[in-house]
Amino acid sequence: MRAIWFSLLVLWPLLTLSAPAQSPPAPTTNITLGQSIVALTGPWKFHTGDDPQWADPNFNDSGWETVDLTPTAGSFNPIVGFSGYVPGWTGKGHPGYWGYGWYRIRVSTARRPGQKLALAGPADVNDAFQVFVNGKLLGSFGKFSERGSPVAYMSQPTMFPLPELHADSGAGDATQVLAFRIWMDPSTLGLVPNPGGMHSAPLLGEANVVAAQYQLAWLNTVRSYLSSAIEGALFFLLAIMAFSLVLFDRSDSLYWWLAGVVLLTGVYSGYVCLGAWTQTQGAAVFNLVVDVLLRPLILGGWVMVWWVWFRLRRPAWTGKLLVGLTLLYMLSDALGEDIFFTAIPHRVSVFFHLVSLGVRLLFLLLLVGTAVEGVRQQGWEGWLAMPVVVLAGISQFTMELGVLHIRIVWFPFRTQVWLGQIDDVFLVAAIFLLLLRRLLFSLRRQREMALDVKQAQEVQQVLIPMALPQVPGLIIESEYRPAREVGGDFFQILPHPTDGSVLIVVGDVTGHGLQAGMLVALLVGAIRSTAQFDPDPLVMLHCLNQRLFGRGHAHATCLALRLAPDGAVRLANAGHLPPYVNGNELAMEGALPLGMIESPEFSLMHFDLASGATLTLLSDGVAEARDEQGHLFGFERIHDLLQKPITAAEIATAAQTFGQQDDISVLAVTRFAITDLAVA
User: Fold this and answer.
1) Cβ contact 129:55 at 8 Å
2) Strand ranges (DSSP E) for 556-648?
3) Is 680 exposed, middle or buried, given 0-12, 13-18 or 19+ CB atoms closer than 10 A?
4) Do 2-204 and 465-679 have matching folds?
5) Cβ(33)–Cβ(110) under 8 Å?
6) Cβ of 669: how many Cβ atoms within 10 Å?
7) pLDDT tens per residue, range 636-645
8) H or E stretch including 178?
9) Domain boundaries, the chain
10) I need a surface site. Which of 133, 151, 436, 513 has the fewest CB within 10 A?
11) Helices 207-224 and 253-277, interaxial angle, to 10°?
């Protein structure tokens, strides 16, 4: 930007400077203007403090300090890398001072009546200012009020038209006193090296030339932060992709972490552009949001992303450590950048800045250590992430690297590019490649799981009888509606080969899906093997309990009954719904489900099933069906359904239509005397 100013200066320079006077009130800078602009480098008069009289053109400022805003050869802004940087008042005899400071200069311009002049404010200033011409307020940058401190913003181009000469004044010298009342926020002490006041000279010149320079300055400001806008857009797109992957595979916690972190990174970049291009956020609020809130959250989030990505096993205390470091990073940045300087002494802020430095070093070690473990366990994925992780850690030391004159910002195509943004470019590329690989792996895994589920379905179809056995004297109906591809309900109907009795076992395994299906396979196998040796219902339940006990959370409700040819029923229950006889629920004592304790006591009862009576066995998926308003299907509806002749399929359909939540199974056994069947 300095090169542009001085190139325009060379176009039409007619500048003569008189030697500064040695007597009050102050020296005068004489300027003859054509179609040009001049940098008002000095001599300026400077004084700390604040007094409205200092705007008066007749005020005697000869006792003030003399300041020259001419940049020295090789001058350098250690934070953003700009050349032509002039140290502020803290670097010129006022270390640690914040608040108001005044700059005054007398300018004599040889101009014609009606010639319009304008003043371009300093391109880099800490932090807000008002400019006066001959004691009258010309304009300001920032919000000034009678109460409270001014609200400052990130430095932006400013332009102020100067008052015109009267037509009857004739051509000649027009001496004017320019006074800048500058406010520096205390938080700037911890953010900028040698802050305070103007770091570049204001420009004075022909109004249309200054206007062209002003427009060019705004264009350069937009260009400077264009990379941040592009970066924010990229991360917002990446966040959309990550959230889409969450919908694709909710079981992978990586997508949740990644979506949250890249969204925060996009917000960070967008917020930087908002602060650079608009005056909607004051500098103090901007620093709080960017440095105290977003940066620590993003850094801590990336540690978690890489940790989950590389599937590293972490002790229970590591999560608390990471949360603690993130909170300490927030606290140390808040207290280490003089944001709360009016309440916290500067020496305390210096201490917390050192704490912030230590926390950032710990984060760098965590990131590098995570990448090293990723290399050990994942191979090339870890190597791909290594440079990204290292750059992300190093980019947290912007101020420290700048003080060491290590370049951290570049200006390709007049666009400002930071070290952290270069890291973000590599980060997006690495994340894209790694996500593509992970997505392909996830698709393959889902295909394998789908194949496993299909095979489990085939196994379950074999285990749960599709064709019911023909038992003399009985009409048996069954209906099975799993809530998922693989259900947890089961039933077996096993006629005895010699005495004409039939063993019926129904049950419901806890849980759903493939795991429940495997437990069903285990129980059905145990039922068939046990029935060959002892078909007694109580023996059956004890046998099944031994199979499940000690298998963690493997539990099941189960009901076993043996129906003799004469209608005598022996029934044992382990927490299952009681059966219904002719629509009336049998009263049974409660009992624990299978697998809860090693030696349970199961409910046992005997009754006779009369000729023409129907015994109905239901799983809890019927009673627990729930509609959109959350109402249960309930036992009253079951009772009402069973008061009239109804098939097992009709009962299952009624519950499923109401709102299926769990597996639904219905088994109905109607007993007829063999002679009745023969007559029929």
Assistant:
1) no
2) 556-563, 568-574, 580-581, 584-585, 603-608, 614-618
3) exposed
4) no
5) yes
6) 24
7) 999 999 999 8
8) strand 172-184
9) 2-204, 283-441, 465-679
10) 436
11) 170
Contacts of 406 (CB under 8 A, 6+ apart): none
Dist. CA 534–CA 503, nearest whole Å: 10
- The C-alpha atoms of residue 401 and residue 545 are separated, in whole angstroms, by 68
Tokens of 535: 């078909």
Tokens 């009267």, residue located = 166
Question: How long is the chain?
Answer: 680
CATH, range 2-204: 2.60.120.260
Under 8 Å between Cβ of 269 and 228: yes
Q: Which two tokens stand for residue 456?
A: 């489990």
Position 190 confidence tier, pLDDT thresholds 50, 70, 90: low
- % pLDDT > 70, the chain: 80
Q: Determine the 3-state secondary structure of 417 from DSSP.
A: strand
370 contact partners, CB below 8 Å, separation of at least 6: 303, 306, 307, 310, 312, 389
Name the phi and psi angles at 131, rounded to 5: -120, 135
Q: Which two tokens stand for residue 166?
A: 């009267």
**What is the spatial distance between Cα 286 and Cα 264, in angstroms, rounded to a whole number?**
15
Other beta carbons less than 10 A from residue 549's beta carbon:
16
- Asked if 297 contacts 326 with a C-beta cutoff of 8 angstroms, the reply is yes
Q: Provide the whole-model pTM.
A: 0.60
Q: Where on the phi/psi map is residue 194: left (φ > 0), alpha (ψ -120 to 50), or beta?
A: left
Fold observed for domain 465-679:
Phosphatase 2c; domain 1 (3.60.40)
Query: In the predicted model, is pLDDT for residue 319 greater than 80?
Result: no
Query: What is residue 214's three-state secondary structure?
Result: helix
Mean pLDDT over all residues of the chain? 81
Amino acid at 660: Q
In order, the DSSP letters of 264-285 are: HHHHHHHHHHHHHH-SSS-HHH
Give first-to-last CA distance, the chain, whole Å: 105
Compute the distance between CA of residue 125 and CA of residue 202 in angstroms, rounded to an integer. 10
Tokens at 320, concatenated: 């608390």
Tell me the C-alpha distance between 523 and 489, whole Å: 11
Which tokens is 658 given?
């109401």
Section 569-593 average pLDDT: 92
Contacts of 126 (CB under 8 A, 6+ apart): 88, 152, 182, 184, 185, 188, 192, 195, 196, 197, 199
49: alpha, beta or left, given left = phi > 0 and alpha = psi -120 to 50?
left
